[in-house]
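Lab notebook, page 48
Experiment: co-folding of the full assembly
Goal: obtain a model of how the components sit together before planning crosslinking
Operator: M.T.
Materials (sequences as entered):
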Amino acid sequence: MSAEELGFDPSIKKKKKSKDVAPVSADSETTTVASTEDDDLFSGLKKKKKKSKDKKDTSEEPSADVTDDLSESFEGMKLKKKKKKKVVAADIDEFEKQLQDAGIDESIVNETSKKSDLIPYSQLLDRFYGILKEKNPELAGGQQQKLKIPPPEVLRDGNKKTIFANVQQISQVLQRNPSHLIQYLFAELGTSGSIDGEQRLIIKGRFQSKNIEGVLRRYIQEYVICRTCKSMNTELKREAANRLHFIVCKACGSTKSVTSIRTGFTANVGAMKKKRV
Amino acid sequence: MSNIENLKSFDPFADTGDDETELTNYIHIRIQQRNGRKTLTTVQGLPDEYDLKKILKVIKKDFACNGNIVKDEELGEVIQLQGDQRLKVMEFMVEALGVKKKNIKIHGF
Ligand SMILES: [Zn+2]
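Observation: model returned without errors.
Model output:
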């Protein structure tokens, strides 16, 4: 996950480039001070300098002069520092040389310094989603927008009736007229019922919560969800001219006609019983 | 094997069949609760070309259930079966009568 791979922070890239060029430019400025004896020492010290003078290097103007001998590529100022260090850091230099021989070369050191400049990917991603959620919540997953439909509260009323307690609440969440939903429930369940004083629906017959949930799911599929964008933020409108019902989507604006609820054939249970006897 | 399937041209504007206009052709299979835990399955909307009496005879034997045919003024002849036979009826109609599955609508819980 390096800067190049992400192609993200151009400043980091630039820094790296100028780092490579900087020593060359320094070479043109310093011709007299550099001595050949220092060669070995410099090669060891280079790392240190690069680390400590990263910023300085970037400020230097790159020149077209290309010299391969990096050991001679230092300013007088840098040299002075080095000379001071020379005595003290002689042991360290040797150690570093050994490191180099062992295969730990500059590129690795450079990489570590680069890594410290990089903003971690996860942090950037978090930042991106933070901004997206703030400015465009619909694009960021859209999970907060999703309608939460409360599970149907189904109670037994005696032996032959079922109470669907939160019809009103559910039809409100679905933005539908409760009577429309109730009509559908009765048609699908092949039964009838009434609404009690607490606005609960009393259904004739014995039904379990999962039964009602299944019917509710089909109602949502057929009469709530927008066919175009799958949004549940829709309205059911009745066109007076052709007496058709339409789903009007509030999210994408599409309209689609829906079939009216038809009870279909319902056997008269009582009459059948009589016939049999 | 003279005609190769691949070469059949595809008409993107052909009627896909899932239009509202075909709604009248749906076969509705419904369930109703009777007294207690007993249920009733009704099959409505079978095309006229089928002999309902023969179908009922086969179904009654295959599903081991009783049933009868009810004439409804608006909806035509309806097959009534005892118990929840919805899935069996659908399978039977697809396999034995060659009815397309998309033309069958199962209602109920
Ligand atoms: Zn929509």
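Interpretation: Strands of chain A lie at 154-157, 161-164, 193-195, 201-204, 234-239, 244-249, 255-258.
Next step: discuss with group before ordering constructs.
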